[in-house]
Amino acid sequence: MISVYDLKPRFQNLLRPLTESLFKAGVTANHVTLFAMVASVGYGAWIYASAGSIASLLLLPVFLFFRMALNAIDGMLAREFKQKSDLGFYLNELGDVVADTALYLPFMFLLPNPMLVLMVVLLAILIELAGVLALGVGNDRRYDGPFGKSDRAVAFGVLGYIMVFLNVSNIVYTGIFGVFIALSIWTLHRRIKGGLNNG
Fold it and tell me: What is the pTM of this model?
C-alpha cells in the first residue's frame, strides 16, 4: 500500500549533510525529538488560540514538513551515530503521539463536526500504538499505511488550505473526515495484521 512513508529513504539522503553537522555541533537524537514535540505543541496552541487564523493554517504544511524533517533527523542520529537508547525509544513514540494530538485536536474547535475530528485523533493514537505493539509479539515495529503519521500530515496540511481558500459546505467536511476515518481504520487493521503475521 502506497504511503508517504515510502519516500523516507530519499528524504533522509537529502537531510544527511545537515544531520552530520548537527552531530558535530553536539546535538543528540533526544534533543531533536524533544524539540519536535515542544514545537508541535506550540504550533497546535497557536492554531487553537488564534481560532484557526489564516496564517496558522497557511503555514501548517510548512510546519508539518519541518516536523517530518526533524523526525527523520532524530532517527538518523540515533541509528547512524550510535545514539539509540531506551529513553530515546520512549521519547520518540510518546513524542509523536503528543505532537499529532496537539496539532490536530484544535480542528475540533474550527470545524462543524468536532466528534469526527476527535475520532481521527483517537484512531491516530491507536494506529501508532498498534505499530509499537508488534514489538511485544516479537516482530518489527509496523509503519503500514495508507494513513500513517506522514500521510496524516499531508492530509491535514491540505485540509488547512481547503479551509482558507475554499468555501465548502459542512457536508463536504463530513465527507473528508469520513475518508480520514475509513483510511485510519484500514491502516489500523493492516498494522495489527502485519504485526501478527510479521509482514
Answer: 0.92
